[in-house]
Design brief:
The chain is an alpha/beta fold. It is built from 15 helices and 15 strands. Helix 11 runs parallel beside helix 12.
Amino acid sequence: MTPAAPGPAGLRAALAARVVVADGAMGTMLQAQDPSLDDFLQLEGCNEILNVTRPDIVRSVHEAYFAVGVDCVETNTFGANHAAMAEYGVAERIHELSEAGARIAREAADEFTASTGRQRWVLGSMGPGTKLPTLGHVTYAVLRDAYQQGAEGLLTGGADALLVETTQDLLQAKAAVLGARRALSALGVDAPVLVSVTVEATGTMLLGSEIGAALTALEPLGIDMIGLNCATGPAEMSEHLRHLSRHARVPLSCMPNAGLPVLTKDGAHYPLTPAELADAQENFVRDYGLSLVGGCCGTTPEHLRQLVERVRDLVPGEREPRPEPGAASLYQTVPFRQDTSYLAIGERTNANGSRKFREAMLEGRWDDCVELAREQIREGAHMLDLCVDYVGRDGVADMEELAGRFATASTLPIVLDSTEVEV
């Protein structure tokens, strides 16, 4: 077999040719080494600070996973984003901590490549943070720009790919992906951008998004891979992976927890054994054509050792995806082709076509505007046209106000309708 090439190009080639195995849990492995409050610079729980105060601890986690044969590790940068770092008062250190985390992983990867002759790679972890832009906790632009800082740090430190993981809010995911794209452009680098969404045990993402909505919203952003991680074990992920396997144009990944956590007097316990995780992931590779597998919360080097043994020589199962063109709201995807009807776009939330809507908008009666949208939902519309164009009005402000309200009040995709690009 021809040795794998280094860098992003080598990782792309490996993902296209065989199953690539990533690592498992990071946080619990760090905590197991009992870092002191001084190690955290009095910022208890800020694992990213350990990249500069205790790189030896962070490196030991990467080495433990490389030692059992994984192909790539994730950087210790899950919280190196605006929301998490701002809570600790160190938002200005996003780039620094991201670069330091990537350098530690890069050094460990290169050392194992040299000693074993097998190429190892680094995935730059970009976590979701603690603020949900869809709910107005933070603005989209602030998140996007902070993600760009983190991504530039990861790439400068030597990451081979950027992994937007544990995504809970589609607007947050968009901010991360576009921040990553801006970083790649700014540095003149071509590296894969991978996205891993988190579907709760309820069957949707945290804000109620179905997997179809996530695929429809994220795939057109030019991502290189989509998959699932965290929240549940593999059993609960199966149907969502089936949907991705049938419809996604891009390769797929899966990094489940070691089952659903069981609360004990000693804290959360993850019940899935290494053999059970390996069984499930092997089946996913064969049935759904996964290209990247690994573990999340509760998984250990032993889980990954058995997973490596099980899938090392596998190629992803054959897929014949049938993409379904459509549009997505926060909650669901709506196919453009309707089997039992024409595609109905509700026009009553158009300031030029509905006097009732226009008057409500001009008077700032936003709840009445939302109710007009809901009426069209009840009457069977598939999408909602939203047009705020009106002479003398600040269209950008009106669109921000109404699009934000419609996004959470309506389950249907919104057609943004204006003759002005800014609007």
